[in-house]
Amino acid sequence: MVKHEKRGRLGFKTSRDVSRIAREFIIEVLEFTTKNCMKHFQYTNRYTFFEGELPFHSVMCPAVSKVADSFIMEYPIKRKKNEKELIGRLDYYAHYRDIDILLELKLNTFNTYGKSSTRTEEDLQIAITQLKEISKSHINEIALNERKILIALVAIVFQDTMYDKDLETKDYIKNYLNLKSLNGNYQNLLRGSGISKRTLNKINFLGRWDLPINMLKQSKKRNIKTPVIYPQVVFIGNISEI
Fold it and tell me: What are residue 157's DSSP bridge partners?
């Protein structure tokens, strides 16, 4: 876990089956993504992930652009489903160091006080399925490189209630975030968000961003009367190569 006063804490963990080049790509993209989130907050005092998945692309897209040699969003692709060929879209199709990278992104929110407000597990499976359904012949037709990497990524935004008096105490923040090693803490976070053991086994990439204290502010979200804060964003992913 990398600690930085202005950036908060940012850490990543990957399984051994994830290639070094895939790991470098996604980590660098997410590092720039969090920087873009902070820059947006600095000027607007608002979170880019506040309104959901589509606005989050506003900070993810420049990050991919900075890291990849070239890329395109919403790339038209052919999917095979039940022996039928369907036309769909791919969130990101990038070229990086002589490798083609196909990436699907999902974003949802989880209430840390015990109630899941989204379908984290389902989102990850949808992203994995969307990538696997892309016709292999179509991939070979459009690919510029022999190696192709598939990345199914879900950003889980943790939200909770916290009041101004608590935000003034740094020790409270430290205890609240429960800053331990990546291993056990990730497992607790993911189990708490309703992810089954079967899905946990599919996750070979984990990232966690503990937001800096200056970004922890009360926000009122639609349909939620009590002000909430967003202390953490956890990234889970399934990375494979074809």
Answer: 109, 233
* pLDDT tens track for 201-212: 888 998 888 888
Q: What's the pLDDT score for residue 46?
A: 80
Whole-angstrom CA distances from 182 to 87, 148, 185, 189, 205 are 39, 28, 6, 10, 12
Query: In the chain, at which residue ranges do the beta strands (DSSP E only) sit?
Result: 2-4, 8-14, 70-81, 84-95, 99-111, 147-160, 205-210, 229-241
- Cα(159)–Cα(28) distance, integer angstroms: 25
pLDDT category of residue 105 using cuts at 50, 70 and 90? very high
- Could you tell me which residues come within 8 angstroms of residue 193 by beta carbon, excluding any fewer than 6 positions away? 110, 116, 120, 156
Would you say 57 and 40 are in contact if contact means Cβ atoms under 8 Å apart? no
Q: How many angstroms separate the CA atoms of 206 and 235, rounded?
A: 6
- Check whether 100 has a pLDDT greater than 50: yes
Q: pLDDT for 59-68, tens place per residue?
A: 999 999 999 9
CA separation for the pair 30, 207 (Å, rounded)? 9
| Domain parsing of the chain, residue ranges | 2-241
Q: How far apart are CA 88 and CA 85, in angstroms?
A: 10
